[in-house]
Design brief:
Layout: H1 2-16, H2 20-43, H3 49-69, H4 79-82, H5 85-99, H6 103-126, H7 135-143, H8 151-162, E1 167-172, H9 178-187, E2 193-198, H10 207-212, E3 218-222, H11 226-231, E4 237-244, E5 251-257
Parallel strand pairs: 1-2, 1-3
Antiparallel strand pairs: 3-5, 4-5
């Protein structure tokens, strides 16, 4: 439970943006509270201590592995590790119910424990683009080039165009490419849509793309990945539509290849 309180304090303080000296001190507060919750849970309470150790190890082992060997780290990676801590937190809260005689004080404490979570959840539901979640996560989910904003609209446009006749859709990137996967998933069974992912992306437009323009419209679906946008600057393209991703500076863009 102390760990939950520490996480809430860190979350609130991060968005209040206190002086750097205070921010540098916060991890020590978090560490002290973690030691406290371990002491209270294990040293002072002997009931269910084996179960508590198992739950704590389910958190600690993957967390330590990620800390020592992880090369690409995002806050969301620790989500599954925190799940075993939920029963420990619940047990602590249950213990407090019997320990704190004044139930008003108890509910005030619960509010302190959950206020930051409710604050974050409110924005996730109402306006996720500005939700107070870690920057690296909300940029990937909502506001930067990996996000999916605009994909629905572009797929809808391509589906309507395919009703007029055959079209060709080139998407930039292959493995892990959002445009390529979106076209495969939503237009894969459409017999009027021919498609392919392009990687690596050349600085000159592939000759066959322009040749195909003599037979049908050719579109290029881009997810605003910087290196891809740089590569296609010299391609003979006309912008058809673009959709901003969240509140960032990234866009989903659909181009049409100019006929020869």
């Amino acid at each position: 439970m102390a760990a939950i309180l520490a996480l809430n304090i860190l979350s609130v303080m991060r968005y209040l943006r206190p002086p750097a000296e205070i921010q540098a001190f916060l991890p020590y507060v978090f560490f002290a509270l973690i030691i406290t919750v371990i002491y209270v849970s294990f040293a002072r309470k002997y009931d269910f201590w084996k179960e508590k150790i198992v739950l704590f190890l389910w958190f600690l082992i993957p967390f330590a592995y990620l800390a020592f060997f992880g090369k690409t780290l995002y806050p969301r990676f620790i989500f599954f590790m925190l799940l075993p801590l939920i029963p420990l937190a619940a047990l602590s809260i249950y213990g407090l119910w019997g320990f704190i005689k004044n139930k008003i004080h108890f509910f005030i404490l619960i509010l302190m424990l959950t206020a930051a979570s409710f604050y974050t959840d409110y924005f996730i539901v109402s306006n996720i683009a500005v939700a107070p979640i870690p920057r690296s996560d909300y940029e990937q989910y909502i506001n930067n080039w990996p996000a999916g904003g605009g994909t629905k609209e572009i797929i809808s446009y391509l589906a309507k165009e395919s009703k007029k006749g055959k079209i060709y859709v080139a998407s930039l990137g292959t493995f892990g490419s959002l445009p390529t996967y979106a076209v495969e998933i939503y237009l894969g069974d459409n017999k009027n849509v021919e498609k392919r992912g392009i990687y690596p992306v050349p600085s000159e437009i592939p000759k066959d793309l322009q040749d195909i323009t003599q037979k049908m419209p050719v579109f290029v679906f881009v997810s605003n990945q910087k290196e891809f946008e740089e590569a296609i600057k010299s391609w003979p393209l006309t912008l058809v539509a673009q959709y901003k991703k969240g509140v960032g500076k990234a866009y989903s863009r659909l181009y049409r290849v100019n006929p020869k």
